[in-house]
Each structure stands twice: as structure tokens, then as C-alpha cells.
């Protein structure tokens, strides 16, 4: 079968080179590098794929898609990849409540307590629960001890020494 010769404009070569060197995501850089090797350097899909450790069919598909759609062909299409196991709405629903409402004698949530109570976290390791919470933007915060004094001027007397120093 004869290969179709693809002709790109100098702007497209410049775009490919820029994406291959400075693309934000690794998969975009890899795809751009493969397409540039085929179109810009005249390599066959097989040689370019072998050099980059990819499948020949993948490189050929990337060349065709770039020819048809441009740089947007290098993105990951919607619906691809592993589906999320963690339901953000469900986790927020549980985090907004006290652990005591679920029969846990704690005032704050722990990773183990969350794993045992939240259905979408069941079966996960503690580090898995921690990573899921981190992806959702939650951070562990320690409680600060509060000293109470009957002195009405206590806050004023306490002064600057009780405030944390800024780095």
C-alpha cells in the first residue's frame, strides 16, 4: 500500500515544534514529537514509533488527526481514561457532618473513619483516601489550643508573642 504524502505549511511545522518542546502535558509533547518526526524529518511511522517506543498505528493515527484537526487532535477526548471511583458530592455530604452522627466517638474525621463510613471510599487504603481528599481540595488541619482567661484585658496583654511568625 502506498503511503499518502502529507504536506504541512511552515506555520504547522512551527506549531508542531513548539508543542513538542513546550507543550504543557506530556502526552501532547509526545504526540507532537511523533508527528514532527514523520512529517518534518521524513521518517516512516514505523521508525518514528520505534524511536519513541510507541505503536506504528498510533503514530499514523496522530498524523492523520493532526492533518484534519490541528493541535486540538493531541488532547485527550472526553470520556477516555479510567472513571472516577470517588464521588465528590458524597464525600462533601459526609465531611459536613460530625463523625458522632455515624456512631464514631471522635470529634474530627480520620482517614480510617472516612473509609469505614463513606460508601465510595470503602476498600481503599488510607493513602488512597488521603489522595482522593487532596484531589478534591481538602487538607488536614490541626486544631489550635485555646487558652481562656477570666481577665477581660487578656487579649490585649497577650500581645504579639502569641501570633505565629510569618516566614
What does this structure look like?
The protein is mostly helical and 167 residues long. Among the domains are: 10-74; 88-135, no CATH class. It has helices at 10-22, 26-39, 45-52, 56-69, 88-95, 111-117, 126-135, 154-158. Helix 1 packs antiparallel against helix 2 (26-39), helix 2 runs antiparallel to helix 3 and helix 6 packs across helix 7 (126-135). The N and C termini lie far apart (67 Å). The model has no long low-confidence stretch (mean pLDDT 85).
Give the N-terminus to C-terminus distance in angstroms. Answer: 67 Å
Query: Taking all residues together, what is the mean pLDDT?
Result: 85
- The coarse overall form would be elongated
Low-confidence stretches: none
Keywords:
mainly alpha
Secondary-structure blueprint:
Elements: H1 10-22, H2 26-39, H3 45-52, H4 56-69, H5 88-95, H6 111-117, H7 126-135, H8 154-158
Helix pairs in contact: 1-2, 2-3, 2-4, 3-4, 6-7
What's the gist of this structure?
The chain is mainly alpha-helical and 167 residues long.
Amino acid at each position: 500500500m502506498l503511503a499518502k504524502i502529507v504536506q504541512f505549511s511552515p506555520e504547522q511545522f512551527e506549531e508542531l515544534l513548539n508543542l513538542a518542546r513546550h507543550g504543557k502535558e506530556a502526552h501532547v509533547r509526545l504526540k507532537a514529537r511523533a508527528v514532527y518526526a514523520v512529517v518534518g524529518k521524513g521518517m516512516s511511522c514505523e521508525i518514528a514509533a520505534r524511536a519513541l517506543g510507541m505503536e506504528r498505528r498510533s503514530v499514523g493515527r496522530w498524523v492523520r488527526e493532526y492533518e484534519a484537526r490541528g493541535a486540538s487532535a493531541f488532547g485527550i477526548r472526553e470520556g477516555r481514561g479510567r472513571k472516577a471511583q470517588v464521588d465528590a458530592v458524597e464525600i462533601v455530604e459526609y465531611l459536613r457532618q460530625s463523625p458522632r452522627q455515624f456512631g464514631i466517638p471522635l470529634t474530627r474525621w480520620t482517614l480510617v473513619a472516612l473509609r469505614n463510613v463513606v460508601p465510595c471510599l470503602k476498600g481503599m487504603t488510607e493513602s488512597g483516601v488521603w489522595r482522593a481528599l487532596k484531589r478534591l481540595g481538602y487538607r488536614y488541619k490541626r486544631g489550635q489550643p485555646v487558652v481562656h482567661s477570666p481577665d477581660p484585658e487578656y487579649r490585649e496583654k497577650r500581645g504579639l508573642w502569641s501570633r505565629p511568625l510569618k516566614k
